[in-house]
Write a structure and sequence with these properties.
Elements: E1 3-9, H1 14-28, E2 32-37, E3 51-59, E4 62-63, H2 65-73, H3 75-80, E5 83-89, H4 96-110, E6 116-121, E7 123-124, H5 131-143, E8 155-156, H6 160-175
Parallel strand pairs: 1-2, 1-3, 3-5, 5-6
Antiparallel strand pairs: 3-4, 7-8
Length: 181
């Protein structure tokens, strides 16, 4: 049974949902998974972990600073165990080149180059935004050519099957490190 540590940074909650879903998949496969919200706990990685999956949301084109700080502080440990980055953004839904550049920027900022990276669409949570943010997000989405302009509802872009597949692949690589597929 493997122990997987999952530190994450989430401002609006979708990355937290994704981290908890990944943890559920890990547990369903008979392993231990612990999620830690870095907004409230930015300590060191605990000893004895068999793997680490760092999940970070992107806002204003950048991953959360407190996640980058955590990665910089724990980079040596992250390089010593199988680890992955899960990047959650609106760009990952329809603008893959932009999502990839956000990951590259994060890698350059932190010096961490995870062997495994997953990019998942986040959520457009109009109903939770204040008036100004709702209008700003609507304009950004409209300028990108999206039809998701009804501000009376939310839009979830996370492909849960993809999250499950990523998690199962991570577990398979953990069980068989000689097979980097």
């Amino acid at each position: 049974m493997a122990k997987i540590h999952m530190p994450y940074g989430s401002l609006e909650g979708q990355t937290a949902h994704i981290a908890e879903y990944i943890a559920d998949v890990i547990r369903a496969h008979g392993h231990q998974a612990e999620t830690v919200d870095l907004k409230h706990n930015t300590g060191r990685l605990p000893d004895g972990q068999d793997g680490v999956i760092v999940a970070a949301s992107v806002h204003m084109g950048k991953h959360e600073g407190f996640v980058a700080d955590f990665v910089r502080e724990n980079r040596t440990e992250l390089d010593q165990v199988p680890s992955a980055l899960v990047s959650v953004s609106l760009a990952a839904h329809g603008d893959e080149a932009n999502a990839e550049s956000q990951v590259k920027q994060f890698e350059e900022e932190t010096g961490w180059h995870p062997r495994h990276v997953a990019m998942f669409g986040g959520a457009l949570l109009y109903t939770r935004y204040n008036f100004l943010k709702r209008q700003l997000m609507k304009k950004i989405v409209k300028d990108k050519g999206s039809q998701d302009l009804d501000t009376s509802r939310d839009y979830i872009y996370t492909e849960w099957d993809g999250v499950k597949h990523f998690t199962e692949d991570f577990l398979a690589r953990l069980a068989n490190p000689a097979n980097p597929s």
